[in-house]
Structures are given as structure tokens and as C-alpha cells.
Records
---
Amino acid sequence: MNKKILLSGVKPTGRPHIGNYFGAMKQFVDLLNTGDYECYFFLADYHALNLIQNAEEMRRHSLDLAIDYLAIGLDPKKATIFKQSDVSAHTELAWIFDTLVAVPYLMRAHAFKASRDKGIEEYIKNKYGLLGYSGISNKDLPDSEKPAISRTPLAQKALKEFNEKINSPEYTAESSFNLTLKVLESINVGTFNYPVLMAADILLYDTKVVPVGQDQKQHVEYARDIAQKFNNAFGETFKLPEPLILGSTGIVPGTDGQKMSKSYNNTIPLFATRSEIEKAVMSIVTDSSGEVPTNVYAIHRLFRPESELKPLYEANKGKYKALKEALIDDIDAFIKPLRERRAELAQDEAKVRQILAEGATKANTVASAKLEEVKKKIGVL
């Protein structure tokens, strides 16, 4: 029986933390190990180019990400692991798809909306000098958790002034258009166009399953829509992928109680040393009004079953230092074998590059065949 094809891409944007691990990385490995899927995992370096525009940083992050995933158990004998940039069919197919999609359609993408809202914030701050306006939207949160601009009183006032200005009688269509351009000037075309490249990533491999979080379903919906547009225009060519919603571990809190995120500088690195773990855990903000430190417990439950935690926390009510020390021991016991495996892999970067090169060869075989089919359908071959 043919296995379903599963594909996922990850941007190489820096050192992973335990929130990344429990939110997605571990689940990728678990899916691979079921044996139910033919898996493709790629380093989305072209997507990362929207964020990283330094050659050495891109090289380092890409190699580091490959090492990270190999260290947590992503087996190159079971999965095809490669860099997006090593398979040129991704960007070539994206251009073909560009000719089928309209600008308003792409303006509905979550990433574009987040960037647009940020542009509006910056414009209003610069134009009206509104203090304390920053932080209204948060790019690290899923859309369902983002505080909408309209929910913030200060933002309501600012946006009202902004909209009144655009709609005022003295504002011509040209002036309105120029103001819109001013708001959008910080958004690059790559950010605007990323759903199309993502659709190409997915559709090149006849992907059936794309593991995503609940808030990322739109990525797969765009791929389905674009596949259907192409099929309608040129004949049946692409299969329609389905999202596989990853199980939720809930929001993993950072050391300050907010969602764990590199942008908040509140993370516990996935491959942290013992001393790094100690420093991070001891900095976890605790609620002095209760006997159980909520943030400590929320992180601890990732590493120990509740059946073991409840008696531990009951026996140490109010003893925050003891509970943090127990958490340090449990995190270190979990991370230590991953850390050692990663260190071993990092000693042989040539082997890691070879794994990526072999993965690219396999991926190119599949992607080139699909691209050739597409080119024949559109009439350039």
C-alpha cells in the first residue's frame, strides 16, 4: 500500500527552545516513526530570507537547524531532509502560480495582515506621536490570540483619526492611495507573496498531509485553492493536500509568564547546558500570592506526569526554590541526551551537509518530474 506523503518546512531563524520542541518538533518525529507516511522535511531558507539578510547568518542557522532536527531523532533513512534552496523547482513553480492568483486574495494572508497592522501602527506613531502604542499586535502569537487593534482603546482612537483622514472630503483618491503605500512601504514582496511559494513547496511532491497548528490551517487552504485554480485552468495536475492538526500542548510559558518566544527573551533553549537551564529556571517569575508557582508548574508538566507532580508540589507548598531545583533536574535529565547527540553531530558538519545533499537529490527527482508535467500543461515544453 502506498504511504501518504507528508511534508513540512521549518525556517532556520535561530536556536530552538522547549516551546518549539513540544509544539512541533517532537510531533514531527512521532509522525515519522509511525511508519504511516512518506516524509519530506525541508529547511525553508528562502522563506527565512524575509527575516535574515546576512549570508553567514543564513548558512549558520541552516546548518544548525539540520543538526537540531537530526539530534531530536529525525532519521534521514526514514525521511527526505533537504534545503529548499537546493531544489529550484520550488521557486520556478511559485512564479507559475503567481500568474494565477490575485492581489486581494494574497492580502487575506495572516502574515500580510500582521505586517500591514504593524505598518499602520508605525504610521500612526510617527504621524500622531501616540506614546505607548507599541505592542498592540504580536507576530509570535497565532491570530486567534493576537490582541486586535480595535480592542485597544488607544488604538481605537488612533485608527478613528486615521480613517477619518483617509475618508475626509479633501482627501483625493490619489492621496488615499499614497497613504496606503506609506503604510505598506515596510512590507517586502516576499512577505506578501509567501503563501504562493508555500503552495509550491507543498504541491510539488503530491503532498497529502501537512502537519500544522490550528492557527496555521490557512497555509494549507492557500495551497488547496491554488492547486484547484491550476487544475481548472490546465487540467488535473495537483492533488489537494489536507492539514493534519498537531496536538496542542497549550501555550508553553516563558520565564516571564508570557508565551515562550525568542522575541521576548524568555526562553529555555532546547539544547541548553546545565548552567543555562539553572539560570533560566531560577529567573522564572513566580506568584508570591499562591503556594504553587503557576509558571514553574506549567513548564514542569511537560517533563513529568501530573500524577508525579501533584504530590511533589503538595509536599513543597511555598518552597519555590526547591520546586525550581526539581524542575532544573528534570529538564536537564531530558535535555542531556539530546544535547550530547547534538554535540556529536556538530563535530561532523560534513556528514550533515552530505545528508542534506542526498535529500536534495531525492527531492529534486520528484520535484523535477512534477515541474516537467506542469510545464507541458502550460505549454512551455
---
Amino acid sequence: MKILVVEDSLTQAFAMQRTLKSYGWEVILAKNGQEGLDLAREQQPDIILSDLLMPVMDGFEFCEAIKTGPLKTIPFILLSAKGELEDTVRGLEVGADDYLSKPAQETELIARIRSAWRIKEYQDEQQAIKEELEQAYQEKLKELEQAKVTQSSILPQKFPQLPGIQISSRYLPMDQIGGDFYDVVQPNAESVGFLVADVTGHGISAALISFMASSLFKISYDKQSLPSIALQSINDFLHGKIEDGKFVTAWYGIYHTQTRELSFASAAHPPAYLVRAQSREIFPLTASGGLLGPFSSETFSFETQKIPVQSGDKILIYTDGIIEIQDVQRNSFGWDRFEKLLLEQSHLSLDSWLDSIYNHVLNFSGQASYGDDITLLAFEIL
């Protein structure tokens, strides 16, 4: 242990030095507060013992300088021959950890030093734990930021351009890393495919599964003519490769421009909606199919459904984050409110329609952060 003794009386300073050295401790001497401050900065002592009345800088000023700077965690014991209550109070107010009257009895002095040392050891341990946790937290943040970049890279930067169809999307990621992703692909010159998927949970594991499922879709969609077979291919690969409790829901539809027909399949995903503005009708687009990942395709099958579409029809695919979002009273947005909103705003252009849906949901929530991603992918038949 290294102890800094600040005392303007050389006789008392040397006496204290001899006593402390007899316990095997290193002792540094300073004759006033300013010299003590300089030595404290240079030597980084474990404990400081300081007289109260000294020239240049007294004990109060010295203590305050220590306790308001980078050395504030060093235990500071004030020594005074005055023994006045007001001095004790003032010393504690400027940051002293303990106070001793001079001449201090050796047994009491050593006991106070050992007590201060135990406190310092505890504080050092807590600081080391805090620094370790902070380092782990910063490393986690870096991993999350890298995962966010990876997750963003799987989203389409632009959409295929086909005559007779307009495509638009809105995506609001949660503060953490969510599991939503979507894609728009062109299996051939006369069709365009729309995928929206949601990985259960959040964080890096969800992002990795998103990346895996998205990659599988990108390499398989053009080999499958039916949406159900494309989803089955993804399930066949994911099954047995993701941890227990994790799964993916998905909705995949293919619009055929020549026949004006939409074929689609679902992996336990919320139904897409077909909104017919002219007749003010709304149709949920459902198809049977299980979750992607947990179960073998041998235990269930994905169904492909088909529906004709016409000019003015809007089709919206989304994730459940928009249904489950809550207001400040913890009321969910819900299906009824969602379907009513889709119909009420269906007279708008596609982009304005999505903006209206998006803004209504955010205004309903009234929050700056969200517990899940919000994904909207829509197309309109022109």
C-alpha cells in the first residue's frame, strides 16, 4: 500500500512515516497541499493523510481539489489538532472520507487506514466490474450495429419495373434488431414475386436467421413456379438448423401480368389484404401452411391459392408489428382498426395510401420507440 502524508511539521511527518513504514507500507511525504496535489497526481497513492492547517494550500482546499478531480476515489483522511466540530463538518463536506484528531493514537490511526483500504479495495473491485460490463456492452453494441448493417443489406434497394403495376414499401425497424425482411423479385418477364417474412424474437440470432432465410429465397425463387414450393424449399433447409423456439412466418405471392392472377402461399403469416377501392371491399388472402423451421415438411404442406385481380386493386403485405403496436394505455392497434383504416384510405394513390397507414399507426402509438419492426409492402394493379 502506498500512503501520501501531507504535513507541514517535519517532526510529525517523520514520526508518522516511521510508524507507517513499520507496517510494511510505502510512505510519500509532502509539506503542503499544493505539493501533496502534485505528488498525488504523479504517484497515484492508495490513501492520503493530510493535515488541516498548512501554508500555500490548506487541508480543506487540498481535499476539495482531490475529490473534484480524477483522483476522487482515493480515500482521504483529514488530521487536525483543533478538534473543532465545525472543522470536522467542513472537512466531510469538501469530500474527506474520515477525520482524525492529532495527535492520533497509533492503534486508531492504523485501524482507520485499514478501514479506508478495505473500502478502496471494494470500490476498485466495483469499478473493475463496471468497466468490464461497459466493455462488454460496447462490444455488444458493435455486434448489433454490424448485424443491423447486414440486415439492411438484405432489403431491396429498388423494385422491378413492369408495365401495369406499381410497387411501394415502408419499413420502420425497432431500436433493437428485429426479424422482419421483405423482397420483390422477378421470376420471369411476365411475373413479379412479393415476399414478407418475420423471424420470431429480436437480436443477433433473429438477424442471422433473417439473413439465412432471405438468402435461401434469393437462390430458390426463380426455380419454383408455385409460391408453396418456394416456401417448402426454405423450410426444408431451415428445419433442424435453427435453435429451438425460433421460427419464421412468411407470405409469398406471385402476380402474373398476362393473366392478371395472383397466386400466393403462407407460412403461418398474417393474411395479406386485397383492397378494392371502387366497391369498397377488402379480402384477406389466407392460405394454409406451417411455420418455417420447427417442423419437417413431411408433417404438413403449404397450400397455393389463386385469385384474379383487376385495375385499381391494392394488395398489402405486412408483419404483425403493426397490429400489435400499443398506445400509451397499452391498447393494441388491432385487426378491426387496421382493416377499417385500409378501406377508409383506399381512394389514395399507392404511396399516399402507405404513408397514411404508416402515419396513423405512429400517431396511435405516440411513442418514439417500438417493440417490433413495422413492415408494409404493397402493389397496385394499374
